[in-house]
Design goal:
This protein is α+β, with helices and mostly antiparallel strands. It is built from 9 helices and 16 strands. Helix 4 crosses helix 5. The radius of gyration is 21 Å and the shape is globular. The model has no long low-confidence stretch (mean pLDDT about 95).
């Protein structure tokens, strides 16, 4: 547990902040989300609800609407506590986003379901309501499909070069700025909470702690981008397969580095970075030593996160867009289409292409 002295040594995390670019800072600018229809997202759940059970899955397209706000409205309609409405992933407010929501209705038969059609509005379209046996858990979806238009971008040749490089190498898998709240407000909330302020809202508490973990991860990734090691295997490092699920450790003595590096270069694997939290007996390897060096300035924050009983996780350092394609519309409008694994941010890819406003 973090002691009181450690908590009091927590320094506010710098915001705003610019993390390192893998392909150099873009020299072009574009308008992002001029219209909600410029940012289309479709969630790929990865399985079909079975049609029976005490959980109702709602397939919804929302426009310019906050995911958690809609979840609370669903809870009101269903007459259940907010904690009984779940979603796999937060989606951008500014955009047209299709995703699933799960509602736990224990003991209620289908013929007494709420009138889900009452959700329909200019901002909310219900495609279907289907029963399922299991709760919709956070992060269970496979990924998301994006169709994004960047307006007023210009300098086509420079942008084309960047697009080709990203298609071959991917981009740093940073958490997007939206993770940290308006003007980084989630980071400030986390500091207040860890120093004793009581936050009643469970969603806000979770977002605050997640923002700190994300910040620490981004800092480590930024340092590895700076020194060119974000796509380089290190002895003892944990790597992740491109499916985003399976992981394995590189040999601590580096005997398999050549083979692992070849698979990273081919796009089959990616190095990972830590999502700070409780870990049993962390190994001592060249990779862990390097990570500890980078994260030393944030050790009080890491200790505070461990005290919150968060389990440590790993996250891929590389974002790799699947089925990545692009074309120009009306000269200075660039349309991008791609799939991302769950947890990756489209804005992390866009920042490597152009600056946005």
């Amino acid at each position: 547990m973090a002691n009181a002295d450690t908590i009091q040594t927590l320094e506010p995390l710098t915001w705003p902040i610019t993390w390192a670019y893998a392909h150099g800072e873009p020299q072009t600018r574009a308008q992002l989300k001029t219209h909600c229809s410029d940012f289309l997202v479709t969630e790929n759940l990865g399985f079909e609800p079975c049609g029976e059970g005490e959980h109702v899955y709602l397939d919804i397209t929302k426009t310019d609407t906050n995911t958690d706000f809609l979840a609370r409205n669903i809870a009101k309609l269903a007459g259940v506590p907010a904690r009984q409405v779940n979603y796999s992933g937060l989606k951008d407010r500014r955009g047209v986003t299709r995703q699933w929501f799960g509602v736990h209705l224990p003991g209620k038969a289908e013929d007494v379901d709420p009138d889900w059609q009452q959700l329909q509005s200019p901002q909310v379209h219900l495609h279907q309501a289907v029963r399922h046996l299991r709760k919709l858990k956070t992060g269970v979806h496979q990924g998301n499909f994006f169709c994004i238009r960047l307006r007023g971008i210009g300098a086509c040749d420079l942008v084309e070069q960047r697009l080709a490089t990203i298609a071959q190498q991917g981009a740093p898998n940073y958490f997007g700025d939206q993770r940290f709240g308006h003007h980084g407000g989630n980071l400030g909330l986390a500091l207040s909470m860890l120093q004793g302020k009581r936050i009643k809202d469970r969603f806000k508490r979770g977002m605050a702690l997640s923002s700190v973990r994300s910040y620490v991860f981004n800092q480590l990734l930024s340092e590895r981008v700076k020194d060119g090691s974000w796509l380089q295997a290190i002895a003892g490092e944990r790597c992740m397969f491109s499916d985003g699920f399976s992981q394995f450790d590189v040999a601590a003595d580096g005997t398999d580095l050549s083979d692992v590096q070849g698979r990273i270069d081919a796009g089959d694997l990616a190095p990972t970075g830590p999502m700070a939290g409780r870990v049993g007996n962390p190994p001592t390897t060249p990779a862990s030593h390097y990570e500890n060096q980078i994260l030393a300035p944030y050790s009080p924050w890491v200790e505070a996160l461990v005290a919150q009983d968060l389990s440590a996780q790993r996250r891929a350092l590389r974002l790799w867009p699947k089925d990545f394609s692009w074309h120009w519309v009306d000269g200075d409008v660039l349309e991008l289409q791609f799939h991302l694994m769950r947890g990756s941010y489209a804005t992390a890819l866009i920042r490597e292409i152009t600056q946005t406003q």
